[in-house]
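fyi for ur records
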Amino acid sequence: MATTITALAFVLIWVAAITAVGVAIASPSALTVLLALLVAGLAFISRPRLTATPDGAVDTATHPELWAAVVAVADKLDTPAPDALVIDHAFNASVHSYGWRGQHYALTLGLPLWLTLSPAERLALLGHELGHRVNGDPLRGVVVSSGLHTLDEIRMALRPVVTESAIVPMLANGLRWVLSVPVTALVAWVYRMTMADHRRAELYADYIGSTIAGRPAMITMLERLAGLAPLFATSVQQSTLQRGGPPPLERFRALHAALSPDELAERVATALAETPSIDDTHPPTADRIVYIEHHGPRVGRLDAELTGEQTAAELVHHEDAVNRRLVALQRDAMYAE
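which gave:
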């Protein structure tokens, strides 16, 4: 219901724009023209984005084993395989729609995460991500995702800017603040309405992942994702600051390999104990694990050999590009004004 309301809100923006333009044409005045321009501009920003195949997509010729695993999971879930398979730098994975009507979708696998997981955990990850195509996650659709992106763009554009204390800039910032209040409130409402549906979709995707790889693999995948993310971030920071040292992925592998079972368990426990924000897009990892413990089947429907080391071997040549990307993004974050 919340997703339907959110989608209708963005449709109404276009209806309002058409109406405002019609009124301005029928009864032109400074007020009607200004209003039409404002609403039409908002409608233009909120249009669904027409995007091409995402950057970093890999094909079946160079990555046959990885593609075979993805297609096998999709077939088992009775859902179409992704139109694009993307390898990127994130310690994460995701699916998203693209194309004018969102008729295509891409599966993105973060190389650092994929290389960290065991074959069974990789299978659980694929089951979770492709499970979003089964459960109709609201944030994966082109209308809602574009609308949320629009609201964020407007909110960021209305932020007061830092200037010298002159009258005109101060007045401009005051006007920005006044205009930003209703927009910020709308952003908060839309996110909270949509996040409730999205969090439920995440839990169901976890369950779907457990049906593919089994309950133990789904749980340990979630634990590694939560517990090792800070260590990965530290590795990227250290490699960026210490020029001439090992690159981020190599440093992360070394730090990860040096962890004792007790140290890894402590990191996982710390991550699970963190207090979630009300704006978090995912339920707390601890709650997700409890859900799987109660509902996930112990044995999965596919063999972990599908996502064995042969899939990792196909990704080795991506490491240099991923390392460069990680360092560049970290430098941008460190030295941004």
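The mean pLDDT is 83. thats all i got for now
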